[in-house]
Amino acid sequence: MSEEHRETGTGWPQPAEPGRPSGPAGEPDPRPDAPDPDELSPLAPVEPTAPEQEDVPEPAEEPGASAAGAKPAPVSRRLTSAGAMIAVLLALLGFTLVVQLKTTSTDPTLAATREEDLVRISSDLDSRERRLRQDIEALEESQRQLRSGEQGRQAALEEATRRADELGILAGTLPAVGPGLSVRFEGPDKAVEAERILDAVQELRGAGAEAMQVAGADGTAVRIIASTYFVDAPGGGLMVDGRRLTGPYVISVIGDPATLRTALNIPGGVVASVEEAGGNVTPVDSEAVEVSQLHAPIKLEHARPVS
After folding, report:
1. Neighbours of 163 (CB within 10 A)
2. Structural contact between residues 167 and 276, judged by C-beta atoms closer than 8 angstroms
3. Tens-digit pLDDT profile for residues 243-275
4. What is the DSSP letter of 189?
5. Rounded to the nearest 5°, which phi and psi values hold at 228?
6. Which helix (H) or strand (E) holds 52?
7. CA-closest candidate to residue 257, choices 196, 210, 215
8. What is the pLDDT of residues 274-286, one digit of tens each?
9. How many Å apart are CA 230 and CA 200, to the nearest integer?
10. What residue ranges in the chain does DSSP mark as E strands?
């Protein structure tokens, strides 16, 4: 072992520290801050001293930042409103992508369809939608027409019912009530024969009579219609549509009382002719003359309505 080795206290030479010059063995270190060789332990190695550093102010550490070389400590960070919004948007985006992927994966036909076919399918769907909308509009128009037609049919039905009632009264198949006259004919058979009763019926019909019936002394009544006939019965009385009536006779007629009375009292008319034959005609006004006797419906054999 050389002298130099014995001076260092080790069996091996110490490497020189970077930036620190080393002098020859046995010479003091020329650095002013070098330790005294006598103060060093003969067995302890000489620890290099770090060069002095100028006092430079350290930069302020950021909050939450750790010193260089130290393990960073966990710091809880509070999400701000913007961060929360971004997180929500990212979650929605992810959910949408997942749903889209599932939808695409569940329909392998569309996934494998070419772009031209997809365009054609979209066009067909648009055309079908247009046709369905046209059908809806047509159905709504038909509904409006049916509603208006229903109102028209209701009005036509009411008019037909009213007309049927009028025809039923004129045909004698329906009873009737209204203002009119009760005309009483009495006297000898010659004064109230069938011809004079028929003349009275004709005069009353010409004056606007709407419904009439004639009754005998025993209460037997016959409805007078357009086809009613009057015949003198053998042995006295009248035959009206095949039924025998005995006097005095009462004709119940519905119409304007004043007009009907005037028709009976015209000069040379029914009242005058009956009175000349020794009979008597007594008209009595009434606000509610009842014509309740009905005539059997006539069955047509030859006549047909013109279509």
Report:
1. 10
2. no
3. 999 989 999 999 999 999 999 988 888 899 999
4. T
5. -70, 140
6. none
7. 210
8. 999 899 999 999 9
9. 11
10. 176-186, 211-215, 221-224, 230-232, 238-240, 243-245, 249-254, 280-291
